[in-house]
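BUG: 3D viewer hangs when loading the predicted structure for this chain

Environment: internal workstation, default settings.
Expected: structure renders.
Actual: progress bar stalls at 90%.

Input used:
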Amino acid sequence: MIPPLQNGSLFSKSVYYPLIQNLPGPACITDSNFQILTTNKKFLEIFSSKHAISQYSTIKPLFQKNHPFSGIEEEFKKIIEGNKSHSIQIIHFQSETYHEKWYKILITSIPNPEKEIILLISGCDITDECNLKIEQTRINEILKIIQDITKSDHLYDHPEEQIQQVMSRIGLITNIQYCSYMEIDGLGPYTSIQERYFWSKKKGFLIGTDINNVNQDSALSSLLQILVSHTPIVLKKPKVSGQLKYLFDKRKSESALIIPLIQGIYLYGMFLLWDREIREWSQTEQTALMILAGVIETKLARRQVEDNLVRSEEKFQSLIDQIGDMYFMTDKSGILIRVSSSMAKNLGYPSSQSLEGTSFEELIHSPEYWPIFLSEIISGEKIKDYDIQLRTYDNRSIYSSISCRLIYDDDGLLQGIEGVIRDISRRKQYGDLLTDIEWKLEQAQKIARMGVWSYYIHLERFRVSPEIFALLGLSQEQNIVTIHDFTSRTIPQDLDKLLSFFPRAVDQGIEFDFEFRINLMEKKFRYLRIKGKPLIKKGIIHGSFGIIQDITERKDVENHLMKYATELEEKTMELDAMRTQLLDMNRDLDNRVRKRTVQIDQLLKQKDEFIQIIGHDLKTPLTPLVAILPYIRKKIDDPELCELLDNSIEDVATIRKLVTTILDLAQMNSLYMISDIQDIYISELVNQIISDNAYLIHQKSLHITNSILSEYSVKMSPVHIETIFGNLIGNAIKYSFIDGNVQISANNYQDSIEIIIKDEGIGIELEHITRIFEEFYRADNSRHERGSHGLGLAIVKRVIEMYHGTISIQSEGAGKGTTVHLLLKKHPDILLKKKPKFSESFSSNKMVKVDERAKTQGHDR
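Structure tokens produced before the viewer hung:
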């Protein structure tokens, strides 16, 4: 580019025209109307065809929109108007080959004698310099993307969203036509490629095009093999074929840069940067994009590895939960950090979590074995098996076989112990049992004088246990036993039986069992029993096996038994006669017992009648006292006499209540009280009792809750069930604190109903609970209310037992309330003649152990 002209220099064609022609860059001279006076070839090469510029035409087309001079027209006007002597501008346009071009343009005016404005336009190519700056800017932007990815976990948490964001940023930075991300299925040979994301500079993200039958496209397969070597590839349309050429044609692209994503030695994806011109990518740009791909691959690989680890962890946990063996892992201090559910189950723990955190040392039955066990594990490098005893949650011991090893981290530091435990308690039990059985069998064979044998047809010989040598009278040094050893010792009378039974049974493969005799010294013989089964393998008879037993003693016993059988029959007849005598004695004794029972029943009835008479005789004189004493009290004003009369009135009431209670007890003991059993609806009865105690409930501001369902019912006498609930609910109300709560609820079972009465009152000391059902027992006489004689809970318990029910009372101590659990049969099987006497029931209370209840503040529950 020529420098600006100095003021005063005159335009001369002879000087400037040759100068224009020899300039290396584009240059031309125009007048003030932009008519070209002269130009060089470079100017025409650049602007002629695409912008319709010729040797003597005008340069005005260059000022049009999207043309090289469209942004600098004002600069030309300023120079023409004399406001500026020159101007230097940078223009950018696309060449005919679609390459980006940058030029630095000098615009200056040249004075001439005619004083017309002559413009000199000269430029130089700065495309390489600009491309270098743009390339550096792109690389910086790519490095910024890499920094953004490495600093955040967005790609890890949301890979699809982040990959799309990276693609759009790369497309805008590199100013390309399209950017796509393709995933490759499998690890090779490759069959298909899925274009997961496809970005367009003009339209954003579009639907990609998948490539199938990759293994049938040789050009594409070869390309993938090159990419596996971690090498980026620049594809140019004229040199591609197959399915890639189809994509180039479809997208009207001239080149594409492929950046592979490699995991280990496998290609699983690639980025493709498509451009509409044949673009030359610098090595630095390719390297930066490869680094970006590596960062993305690392992030995705990390996510994939962690996902695989999670899935593996879940599969591993599922596996160890399903296997019967017990898996465990400890830290280096021996604390369990992971156990299988089977281990928790076998050791009796509620769950795996409840077992984790326990020291493995605590599970070993003998604590002194732990140091030995630990030292043996540490001293070995491989997996070892040990037989140990483990302690269960309930302190039982189970025999176990443990296979374990030490676990280390990547730096070789000890992390803990890992192993599998098998419960061999049953195997140990079976082993001990088998050993015991083998010993007993050996002893039994000796005691029973029995031996085991097997006979093989093709060998025509026996294999026998040592006992058979002794039974046949053979020397054990003989080693071999044949059929001749049997026949030569069999007495003649049994020889035909032996030769008939044994060979036929062995040949036909059938079971046999017979007896024969063999000769002994001094004209004696021995009874032997031989029993056998066929020895069959794969349907072929190979022989037979069985036992031989010395039954000589049994035969002798049989003879003796026959001798004693007659004697036994005679003794039996004598025993029959004695049994007849015993039956007569039993009948006589039974008659006596029945008479005595009738007498006892009469005495008990007389006692009840006596109590009734005494009770009525006592109540008769008390009745006027009960009526007159309060009347006299109203007429007297003397304080001392009033106090004496109050005490007398209270004592008379107490005596009357005691007499009434005694009469009730006498009635309760009667066999004929239970006569009107009917369906009683519990909730309705409870509401009635609460209503009867409304005054006391109101005085104490109590909160009574009855949550018993209306359909719950039992079969009882109304008098009896009112006695039960009247006492229990009355006690709960009487001994509750002011503003207290009483809750009455029920649970329905198949054949019974449980009623729960819970209060927050004065409670019971533990020392009194075992005696609260005793008659006339009062926990604390000093605080017991007057008129209470300790009979309430005794009567309640007696009535409940008459109906085959149970009652228990619980309290945590004084001031902590009381809970009564009452279990009543829905259909009690009550037989009057089977019910125990009331007095008998009371006398046996001391031997019955229940969880009863009584108020510690002293009352008659």
